[in-house]
Amino acid sequence: MALPPADPSSAALVTGASSGIGAEIARRLAERGHGVVLVARREDRLRELANELADRYGVRAEALAADLETQSGRDAMANALEALGLEIEILVNNAGFGDSGHVHNAEREKLVRMVRLNCEAVTDLQARYVPAMVGRRRGAVINVASMAAFQPIPATATYAASKAFVLSLSEATSEELAATGVGVTAVCPGPVKTEFGAVANVEASEQSVPEAFWTPVERVAAEAVSGAENGKRVVVPGGFLNRVGSLAGQHAPRAVALPFMRRLWERST
Fold first, then answer.
1. What are phi and psi of 88, to 5 degrees?
2. Distances in whole angstroms, Cα of residue 99 to Cα of each of 38, 112, 147, 191
């Protein structure tokens, strides 16, 4: 299964497209000739990116401001998208945010909002757009998870759990759709220098991460799109150390990994 061919009547829906990984994935898809529908809250940034992609690559690029945390926001986005008359043949679920700190000191509503966006919105958008892809027997889903998906992480427990959900959902859905012509790829980046750290309150933690673990956002996007193009189920962008880290997260005994991760995050936050 590969990315479907570019077609004027279809588009890639990219959430969280106003900056960072989402914006770069939109660029890589437009570069391949795909029209894009850019979704995020910040309409000014979306329109700026849409104009850039249309001018540079000659593709149709639409900007839709939407709050994907809520059912009403997702319904409004879907209605606006229907009015554009475009079939969604590529879905990029990138919208999400994180937070750090212990659960007993956390802002309850922020944790709930995180799960709504990181988990509920991903599930909803897959369920909305994958059936039509299956009917056409072509399509691709790129779900942006994280290396945090591979292990529970004290001091950022809800975020890591939400990304574990995205990874599990993606892998199982990929198998469900194996004979349909529709592919699902989970992208699990490690540290990337975007606005994520400031929103998640982990800028101090990021400063303690060795440079060798960082991956440029352009490389993350390129490997995400290439992975979907080649039918990969899981992509861990970056170098050898990130791949080792993902394996260690999956296979290290929890009795060893949990105290280590807690000390690491508490020391750096």
1. -90, 110
2. 24, 11, 15, 14
Which comes out higher in pLDDT, residue 76 or 203?
A: 76
pLDDT digits (tens, 9 = 90+) for 76-104: 999 999 999 999 999 999 999 998 888 88
The dihedral sign for the CA sequence 163, 213, 103, 97: negative
Residue 224 structure tokens: 């995400």
Residues designated catalytic:
159, 163
In a domain, 82, yes or no: yes
Query: In terms of residue numbers, what domain contains 92?
Result: 10-268
Tokens (6 digits) for 236: 């861990």
Average pLDDT over every residue of 150-158: 90
Q: How many domains does the chain have?
A: 1
